[in-house]
Amino acid sequence: MTACVRDTALALAAVSAAVSLTACGSGTGNVSDPGSARKIGVLLPDSTTARWETRDRPLLEQRIRQLCDDCTIEHADAKGDVAIQQEQMDSSIAHGVDAIVLAAVDARAMSASVGKAAAAHIPVIAYDRLAEGPISGYVSFDGLEVGRLQGKALLTAMGAKAHDGRIVMMNGDPGDPNALSFKQGALSELQGKVTIAKEYDTPEWSTETADLNMTEAVSALGAGSITGVYAANDGLAAGSIAALKADKVSPLPPVTGQDAELAAVRRIVGAEQYMTVYKPFGPEAAAGGAMAVAAARGQRLDGVATGRVKTHSGEEVPAVLLTPVSVTLATIRDTVVKDGVYTLKQICAPPLAGECRRAGLT
């Protein structure tokens, strides 16, 4: 755990140091006046997943303004609709933005829009999700490692029941390439060790769809036969748990998650969810904002990146890949509380006061 946090801190330090150089004009970009005002588009996929509006957007905007106090930020939320995000990309291009930070609703469907931006000489930074098309840079977490953390945790929670156990896999949106990485990482841990009795993809990462799918799974498998649930994120965990509780499944099987939403951390304290994956949003947004500013100024992104990643077309682009962290009841204090994401007062608000005392959180 300490190593994971340390790796993330080192990556952020590298990004910050590199940005100090590029912001001073050490890059070899094609903009004649790097100090002039720039416009940066920040296009996020939805507000259904809490992180986008409560974490990523304010942190991205904060970082952009730290590095470029006269930059104008044009933000848009696609409401989970590809067509809306395509229109927002067209609008950003028409407005003459100097760079776009894109968290794609559907990575493949946005390929043509990314191509339009490239044709207009507007660099696109793929944020959190590896959008297809001629992107200029990529910032995210190691998706395979996210899935591996989830798979390992689920096996740990199931213990001796894993050998004869049957799990339900509640995968993410098939249009999100991260969902595939999470699934591949999880399967690398789960295959051959547990039976996957039911598996679902969840368009738009919908909590409601997860609820319906889990209801169907309980009906098909029987209330007492599900010994674990792989939920790719906290929204899917919430929907799965709601369905299990509605069908009076008791005790609840261990359920994974991702994004370290406050509601998920509280469910962990309340013994309804076993774990979540914490992806420190500060370092991700810092790297995304740094790439956006460098790109808007026409500077090289290799000075900001900590590595390179191969895109769907086979081209390698500058990238920052950060390290995710597993959060269970035993590590809440040393992760999301230590990093200032939530306070113990927020986590331990009624009716969880007793559970927090027993867990040593108060």
Explain what you see.
It is a single chain. This protein has 362 residues and is an alpha/beta fold. The protein has 2 domains: 2-141 and 279-323, Response regulator (Rossmann fold), CATH 3.40.50; 144-273, Response regulator (Rossmann fold). It is built from 13 helices and 12 strands. It has helices at 2-23, 51-67, 82-94, 111-119, 143-158, 177-190, 207-221, 234-246, 262-269, 281-296, 333-337, 344-347, 353-358; strands spanning 39-44, 72-77, 99-102, 124-127, 137-141, 166-170, 195-200, 228-231, 276-278, 307-310, 316-322, 325-327. The strands form 3 sheets. The protein has a 7-stranded mixed β-sheet with strand order 2-1-3-4-5-11-10, with helices on both faces. A 3-stranded parallel β-sheet has the order 7-6-8, with helices on both faces. Helix 1 (2-23) runs parallel beside helix 10. It starts with a helix and ends with a helix. The model is unreliable at 1-34 (pLDDT under 50).
What's the structural blueprint in terms of helices and strands?
Elements: H1 2-23, E1 39-44, H2 51-67, E2 72-77, H3 82-94, E3 99-102, H4 111-119, E4 124-127, E5 137-141, H5 143-158, E6 166-170, H6 177-190, E7 195-200, H7 207-221, E8 228-231, H8 234-246, H9 262-269, E9 276-278, H10 281-296, E10 307-310, E11 316-322, E12 325-327, H11 333-337, H12 344-347, H13 353-358
